[in-house]
Amino acid sequence: MSFASSDSATRQSAGNAITPEDIIASENKAPEDVATYAMYLGDDALILAQRLGYWISRAPEMEEDVALANIAQDQLGHARFLLSYAGSAWGKTEDELAYFRDTHEFYSCRLVEQENGDFGQTIARQLIFATYQYELFSRLVDSKDETLAAVAAKALKEVMYHLDHAAQWTLRLGDGTEESHRRMQEGLYYMWPYVDELFADDDLLRDLADRGIAVLPSTLRESFDQRIQPIIEQATLEIPDVAGAFGGDRSGRFSEHRGHILGEMQVLARQFPGATW
Amino acid sequence: MSTTSIHSDAPVADLDEQRAGQERFDQIIAEDSRIEPSDWMPEGYRKTLVRQMSQHAHSEIIGMQPEANWITRAPSLKRKMILMAKVQDEAGHGLYLYSATETLGVPREELVRQLLDGEAKYSSIFNYPAMTWADVGAIGWLVDGAAIQNQVPLCRASFAPYGRAMVRICKEESFHQRQGWEILYELSHGTPEQKAMAQDAVNRFYGPALQMFGPPDDDSPNSQQSMAWNIKRFSNDELRQRFVDMIVPQAEALGLTLPDPDLKWNEERGHYDFGELDWDEFMSVIKGKGPCNVQRMQHRRAAHENGAWVREAAAAYAEKQARRQQDAADTHLIGA
Ligand SMILES: [Fe+2]
Ligand SMILES: [Fe+2]
To answer: What superkingdom heads the lineage (chain A) (predicted)?
Structure first.
């Protein structure tokens, strides 16, 4: 017996075309470099889902418990596809990759690792990441890697909703009360140092992009700026005047938060190695 | 019919209307038809419904907490996904039920205030802690299972909006119970440690789950009236018996035991007999002495208070938008 997440009637996401089980069954083995790229993307989604999942039962209004749970499930769904596909390169499952890699073996960007903070900070993180993901998946749908293209097509519909959700809240908080304006502006300030690394290229990305498999992050920056700037301006907010934090790329420098996030996420699975759940 | 007629301070001139309303109400109940919010209803009926439906809504919302406690630690990605969907559903249930209650004239803000001020109750089962992952399974199997047993008859409650909310909710509850059962099945067929974890969870949740149906019929004075009004269809003890009859074979299929030495099939009655429950404990949890009463309220209040500035911002923004639209319309009129 298996329960698709669509059994939940409050879940509103579009698209159920493929499942992680389909990816495992398809015997579409990922080449190792493509698998590493899938982990770049999948780890971002997994860590963000982990962060957002914490909000459920703590949101500022009950409707928002539902909305944040939706987004968290979408991101977790992306992570499951991507990690299942990545695992196929080495005969590993999504859970082996999620629960039994150590801190230095993850590839997540620092933005998604940042703390939830208040709702303003969470929305700032959402706005930045959803804008980035929207641009990314809009292009990844044309990947020459069939599985990545299919995952991107499914994810794109969902990310459009995440972007709309974040933009709507950015407007309400930015152009709401004095306090909400201040908090939203602070949220942007705290998150903005981690924008640059989303668009950093490396050798793996350059090689995969040359072959039409990956999207070269630096090529997304312009459309990212063009999309996010008007939202921030309309919300009567400003792009923070704060330097990008150097370090931090996919090759091994990560935030202090990562160890705590994984410590919590992996604790039970690691108490029972080899167990099924 | 004007909704003011349902209030007891209605002017004398309304007495005829009230008598007619009562007759019509009695007829609807006698025919086992449905009462809509715009229909006349006795004050006691309305009050009973507001109390029961809002308690039900509060239970859904507070009930999110024990399982939400495991979302970040769920031991597989699939389980994490299902658990998030499940806890999200409970938030949805709370929302349906608050809006169904609002049709009786009490706004959600007031109902939430009653919860946060400790005036309103919620199901006492949620004052027990979800200590282990197996508790998530036991809650799904036993707590959602008991909820289904309670709620299926409520789909036919005489108050139509309550029944309609229940129809939507019951569809999801069966998914909740199945996922709980599946968690326990995996554990009871896993390592010895996993199986012990599952048994321990069932041992702790069995009694409190049986108590979800409320005190024994002899000690449940309000039940009689609720049944006369076709809100309640079966007595507390009847529902409890059905629940026990349902879970005994399910526990066998799990390979787990139920912690009741008196539990045995009674051929004559065609039901399982079961032992006396600890009603002193039940009463002490209701009075606030449960392991998590204070924690649950603290968590709910913190979410509410931390969200106040967000809700204020949304309201202020909506007001600004309305004003802008009005200004634009005015300008347009002047221009024309
Ligand atoms: Fe529920
Ligand atoms: Fe439920």
So the answer is: Bacteria
Please give the model's pTM, rounded to 2 decimal places.
0.93
> In this predicted model, what pLDDT tens digit does every residue of A213-224 receive, in sequence order?
999 999 999 999
Maximum alpha-carbon separation in chain A: 55
**Six-digit token string for A198:** 């989303």
Spatial contact of B126 and B66, defined as CB atoms under 8 Å apart: yes
Domain ranges for chain A, please list them: 29-241+252-271
Cβ proximity of B65 and B299 under 8 Å: yes
Q: Which residue in B144, B211, B208, B136 sits closest to B172, CA to CA?
A: B144
Asked if A34 reaches chain B (Cβ–Cβ under 8 Å), the answer is no
As given in the structure block, the two tokens for residue A239 are 């792009």
B60 Cα to the center of ligand 1, angstroms: 5
> Are the beta carbons of A9 and A123 closer than 8 angstroms?
no
Q: Which two tokens stand for residue A200?
A: 């950093």
ipTM confidence score: 0.93
The pLDDT score that the predictor gives to residue B15 is 86
If DSSP codes are grouped into helix, strand and coil, which group holds residue A169?
helix
- Average of per-residue pLDDT across A235-248: 92
- Average pLDDT estimate for B287-301: 97
Between chains, do B310 and A173 touch, taking CB under 8 Å as contact? yes
User: In this structure, are residues B110 and B119 in contact, taking their beta carbons and an 8 Å threshold?
Assistant: no
CB within 8 Å: A275 and B194: yes
A76 touches chain B (CB under 8 A): yes
What is the per-residue pLDDT for B10? 53
Q: Which of the 8 DSSP states describes residue B239?
A: H
Enumerate long-range contacts of B260-269, CB under 8 Å, 24 or more apart.
Answer: B260/B206
Query: Distance from CA of residue A76 to its chain's centroid?
Result: 9
Candidates B69, B82, B88, B141: best to mutate against A (most CBs of A within 10 A) is B88
Half-sphere exposure of residue B265: CA atoms within 13 angstroms, side-chain side: 6
The average pLDDT across A182-188 equals: 98
Q: How far is the CA of B144 from the centre of ligand 1 (A)?
A: 7
Instruction: Could you list the beta-strand ranges (E) of chain A.
Output: none
A212: left (phi over 0), alpha (psi -120 to 50) or beta: left
**Average pLDDT of span B218-237:** 92
| Subunit contact A10:B89, Cβ cutoff 8 A | yes
The three-state secondary structure class of A139 is helix
Cβ distance B88 to A1 less than 8 Å, yes or no, reads: no
Q: Round to whole Å and give the CA distance between A266 and A102.
A: 10
Judged against a pLDDT cut of 50, whether residue A15 lies above it is answered with: no
Which homologous superfamily is A29-241+252-271 in? Ferritin, core subunit, four-helix bundle (1.20.1260.10)
* Residues B87-102: tens digit of each pLDDT: 999 999 999 999 999 9
